[in-house]
Amino acid sequence: MAPPAFDYSNGRAVVQHGSIFYSPNCSRPVDIPQEPVHSSDPFRWHRLDVSMFKQPVWWDQNWAWRSFIPLAPSFLFAPFEPLCAMPRIEEVRFSFSAPSGEMVTQIRFRLPEDDIRRWLWAEDLIVKAAYELRLRYSIAGNTPPKPSSFHFDRAHKSHPIAKRMACLARDWFAVWMGYLSFIIAKSENRVAKTAPADPSSAAPDWYSYLLKQPEFDELWLDGLSQSAVCTYDWKTPQAGIIFQWSVNDRDREPIEWYSKHNIPLWFIWSNREEQAIRNNTDLNFLRPPDNLIQEALNILFAAPGLPLAGLIIQKYFALGNDPITNKTIEFLRLQYAPTFVFEYTAKRFINQEALLQETEATADARLEVFKVLRDNTIKATAHAASSYPYHGLSATAAPHAAPSVQSQDVPATVRETGRNYNEFFAAREKRQQEMIKLESAVDRQRRESREQKPGVVNATIYEWEKTQSSGGLELYKRVKVNKKANETVFHSYRSHQRLFNAFSNEWDLCEDFQFGIVDNTSYSDDGYDSGNDDVYPVNAVSQPTKAPPSAAPIDTDMGQSWCEYSRAPLETMSLVYGYVPHAGDNDIPPTLSWERMLNFMGFVRNLEELDVGEPERSAMMNFFAAVLNAVNTYKSDKVVAKNFENLSLLFQFEHVRRPTEDLFVFSSPKSDSCRWVLGVHSATAALYVCRYILENPMAHTIVTVAHRLLDRGIPFRTLLPLTCSPRQVTIAEPYVPRSYRLSDHTFTKADFDVAMLACRSVLSSPQGRAALLQGGIVGRIAREYISKDGVLSGPSIEVTAHRVGYLVPSGDNNVKFCDDQLTANEVAIICGTYSLHTPYKGQVAVWTWFPPPEAWVHNRTGCHWLDWTERCEDIFQRILTGIHDGTGRPRSTTQWLTHLRGQNISRILIKHNDVRSQQFMDAMVPIGQ
Hints:
With 929 residues, this protein is α+β, with helices and mostly antiparallel strands. The longest helix is centred in the N-terminal third of the chain and has 29 residues, at 159-187. The protein is globular and about 100 Å long. Mean pLDDT is 85; it is low at 388-419 and 547-554.
């Protein structure tokens, strides 16, 4: 295995327990534990909590799997789907026979029985999978306690205890996710002990082996392979591992193995490692940069009024390494320090001689106080960086961005602590005030009606939950509620935890909200059930005192979301194709009827409603004929050129930037409600923006234009100019198969539902907003789960804090235009992708529930209109109808191309419009402007 190419710009160094620790691949604040003297059971403590196991662990053959524990996994996958929504606690009448023989009845609290059964089912399968694979591959490692050890299946004495134990048990599944993740990672290079691998299968051996077991099916295994258990990338932050690489251990996995699986690596940096690198230059990739170490030392030496560097040097030479007399070795052990550390500390000592004399008498006492304060700060910061509720639009509190991030590039919602949902709502209010200026009379009347009487059943409801970004920043995430559960979810929140937005007909719900009069009613009991309940007989009977509210089901049904497309031929002809009324004579005769022309522009139903009066109708048909004619045909080009000429006189193209050939950037008309600028990737889209702005140049802003592009499904970017290093480039992650089927597999609606759970997990991630920006088929799928506000808020924390996404030079030194970006893997998951294989090795096909983007926009199909047309929606709905009635199946890309093959005239229309648009924009906005 080749040594990893570490990029230390994503690393960190810390000083703890007198030693320097550094990570080449983790910038998250951590709390390094003391190195254990011997192996011991980390789960021996009385009150366990998953937050106790989210810090890096010292390598130990029995417990190294803890390094794979995910910090904030999503449960939106088939094996963990029962855990997606926390069930409501129900009150039960608890009856049992006392020792005297008398029947005793108590009121207790528990999860509904159906949810208990579902949780136990989820536990049984993940425990069984871990057991089977560990046995098959002979993998060492001790087993963690089960989630049921937290007694989620019991009735408890109070509502708070029942809720707390359910939450602890639910979060504990993350520990088992880490355990199984480690086993699957180890299985990659292991030879099965119980049976040989199947050489004809394209699926991993562990997948094929579990599929042969009666408990597991393809749906469960698909969900597992797409979940955090089998996701070894930077977007799934995990606890991490610690070891001293200069000390050999033949049982320890190599550094390359941990790096391949994106496990945070933490190493000791001492003179021993420094000497090892001097003796073997092949180890140079393990040398941390001096600036990384210096930054850690500066933080250590930053104690106000305490000359720590001077004290360390002074006491080292005076008292040596005796921990009883030399209190400074708890901060830094110079006897093990590498050359740079010793020299840098000595340099700081020289500048502190006067301060040393002033503080000599109180040095030891002040050192003790500083150590306590520093240890507490480290623990609190590390805990905040790793322990969050499980599944963002705005950060809740983030003091630990990577050192390379410049604070001015990070939005206030990331830099500041507190209730930053207020900032989200304030920004939304500013955006909507801009859009209200363009509101029609009908829309205004509807909005005002909703303000007077907010609805629930037909509104869109979002629950706000907390998650964290790949770099350890805490985020709020808006999760769309299944409309079938609108009323149940709505009434589970108190009045001050709800906020209605009449403009978009949306409710936002969150336990952290404080709007209006706050209801502080709460339970005082917040205990912990250890299981030692002496009045809990085995034969107890419990009965609900009333029907419990049901947990919100996970919505995998599609096709009911907001979807807007043009039903105005004049609008489409003007904005997409450049038609200008009364632009001059056009003697090119039409060759198609009005209805046929509408068909080729993407209109489908009730065409009689779309009639336009004369002479406009004839002029539009003549213009359509001109666009349809071949490019470089004199008469047609002349007609189209007249319309372009009008546009060149009215729009100020000098304000449009073009940093690359396929990116046009609009920074005006400016908006007071956003920091980003708007970018589009085609000349046709750029001209659409220009024409739309000219419809109302005094009222339009970048935000109102972006809102229009969202409504019409036109791809665009929300570009934020950020300072980036030359090494930071657009993320690229090629497609890797995750779901496997035999070529003769019969697909059902159940397969689709599991695929859409994985799709929803991707779309609910911070960077998931990029799917709506992408437009086309991916954007249409995303409309089912993502709100427009998630897009209009601008790039997510993955971009602003971590510089992960779409990055393109802006032409201004180290400043790049940045936005969120989906990887090929994420797009594949959104489209519901499978790897199909035959009994013959090497014969593998890729099938998808929805057309992949490359098929949707292919020049052989009739779907490559600039905007999302009525015909596009018709195709999408027919796909869904087929899936729901059992006739729809996944298809290969070739099959999708055949299925989507449109009318030849539509393809010619789109092509000629694109070519002429490109020619015009090349002349008006040259590359580099």
